Amino acid sequence: MLRIAIPNKGSLSGPASAMLHEAGYQQRKESKELVLVDPANEVEFFYLRPKDIAIYVSAGRLDIGITGEDLLVDSGAGAEPILPLGFARSTFRFAAKPGTATSVEDLAGRTIATSYEGIVAKFLAERGIDASVVHLDGAVETAIELGVAQVIADVVETGTSLRNAGLEVFGEPIMTSEAVVIRRTGAETDDPKVQQFLRRLQGVLVARSYVMMDYDCRVEHLEKAVALTPGLESPTVSPLHHEGWVAVRSMVAAKEAQRIMDDLYELGARAILTTAIHACRL
Ligand SMILES: Nc1ncnc2c1ncn2[C@@H]1O[C@H](COP(=O)(O)OP(=O)(O)OP(=O)(O)O)[C@@H](O)[C@H]1O
Ligand SMILES: O=P(O)(O)OC[C@H]1O[C@H](OP(=O)(O)OP(=O)(O)O)[C@H](O)[C@@H]1O
Ligand SMILES: [Mg+2]
């Protein structure tokens, strides 16, 4: 059985479970379940606090986990990312009241409120900046207004929370982050069970970002049409009963599909269809 740590709460939890479900794994039906065994797929899911996942995985009793890159760095645990998952994308930044700080040099002597002391301490140590850090569990943006700190260091996505608190980012971004699959540093890379799990998730990522495109075109336009739809390997081209015409089938990036359909139509291609890909193994 592959033993996998999954976030039980917060921004990572819903999208992680949705991705696993799409990959064909059973997921828990109610949020109080702590462990779920999926015998058909030979995996066991442990629903853990996102901040703790890297610690569990580094301890070696769980094979892999899903967490945020920022949480992994913050934990300082001996685990490493092996597959980016494309959700929970964020940037970790310093922010303060406008006019009170413009660069990281202004951090010296200040108090910084954060839920991510590990990341902040590492950043300050690397730059030799002497500042105090106060830990808060959340709603860190309010710390300045309430006099707990002069600066915050927090996750920023849309910037709405900062704006609502009347704060502005300053200095370079401390790090960018997204959800990742992690494993213990130096763990077996070629464990077939881990490889199969990763292939399933990669299949979901591809199925989400590509569509299958089919169209008919005249043989003399084939080269130009295929240049628009080169596919991942090479398009499938089949003869049509109607002489001088071929049918072409190719994978296309979903976000480019409409533009490519326009260009194919201009070229004289017809019966241009796109269909969703539900699952794949490349
Ligand atoms: N608004 C957001 N947009 C995108 N990613 C986010 C957002 N908030 C947090 N994250 C990411 O989610 C992970 C943090 O998950 P975690 O569950 O600890 O915090 P949370 O989503 O803020 O939940 P909570 O604070 O309610 O427990 C981090 O990787 C972080 O970068
Ligand atoms: O830039 P934004 O789109 O506003 O997103 C960033 C905010 O989202 C998260 O907060 P969350 O809602 O999880 O509350 P928390 O601060 O209590 O963790 C994060 O801690 C930021 O506060
Ligand atoms: Mg939060």
How is this fold's topology laid out?
Blueprint: E1 2-7, H1 10-22, E2 35-38, E3 43-48, H2 53-59, E4 64-68, H3 69-75, E5 79-84, E6 90-96, E7 111-114, H4 117-127, E8 132-135, E9 151-156, H5 160-164, E10 168-177, E11 179-184, H6 192-209, E12 210-218, H7 222-228, E13 236-239, E14 245-253, H8 257-267, E15 270-276
Parallel strand pairs: 1-3, 1-4, 7-8, 7-9
Antiparallel strand pairs: 2-3, 4-11, 5-11, 6-9, 6-10, 12-14, 12-15, 13-14
Helix pairs in contact: 3-4
The chain binds adenosine-5'-triphosphate, 1-O-pyrophosphono-5-O-phosphono-alpha-D-ribofuranose and magnesium ion.
Number of domains: 3
| Class of secondary structure makeup | alpha/beta
| CATH classification class of the largest domain | Alpha Beta
Would you identify the CATH architecture of the largest domain?
A: 3-Layer(aba) Sandwich
CATH evolutionary superfamily of the largest domain: Periplasmic binding protein-like II
**What's the gyration radius in Å?**
24 Å
- Mean pLDDT score: 97
- What is the straight-line distance between the termini? 24 Å
Counted beta strands: 15
Strand content: 25-35%
Query: Fraction of residues in helices?
Result: 25-40%
Bound molecules: adenosine-5'-triphosphate, 1-O-pyrophosphono-5-O-phosphono-alpha-D-ribofuranose, magnesium ion
Provide a quick synopsis of the model:
This protein has 282 residues and is an alpha/beta fold.
Task: Tell me about this structure.
- 34% of the residues are buried.
- Helix 3 (69-75) crosses helix 4 (117-127).
- The strands form three sheets. The chain has a six-stranded mixed sheet. A five-stranded mixed sheet has the order 8-7-9-6-10.
- It has helices at 10-22, 53-59, 69-75, 117-127, 160-164, 192-209, 222-228, 257-267; strands at 2-7, 35-38, 43-48, 64-68, 79-84, 90-96, 111-114, 132-135, 151-156, 168-177, 179-184, 210-218, 236-239, 245-253, 270-276.
- The radius of gyration is 24 Å and the shape is globular.
- With 282 residues, it is an alpha/beta fold.
- Helix 4 links the parallel strand 7 (111-114) and strand 8 (132-135).
- The model has no long low-confidence stretch (mean pLDDT 97).
- The chain has three domains: 2-88 and 178-189, Periplasmic binding protein-like II (D-Maltodextrin-Binding Protein, domain 2, 3-Layer(aba) Sandwich), CATH 3.40.190; 90-177, Periplasmic binding protein-like II (D-Maltodextrin-Binding Protein, domain 2, 3-Layer(aba) Sandwich); 210-276, Alpha-Beta Plaits, CATH 3.30.70.120.
- Bound molecules: adenosine-5'-triphosphate, 1-O-pyrophosphono-5-O-phosphono-alpha-D-ribofuranose and magnesium ion.
- 1-O-pyrophosphono-5-O-phosphono-alpha-D-ribofuranose is lined by residues 138-141, 154-161.
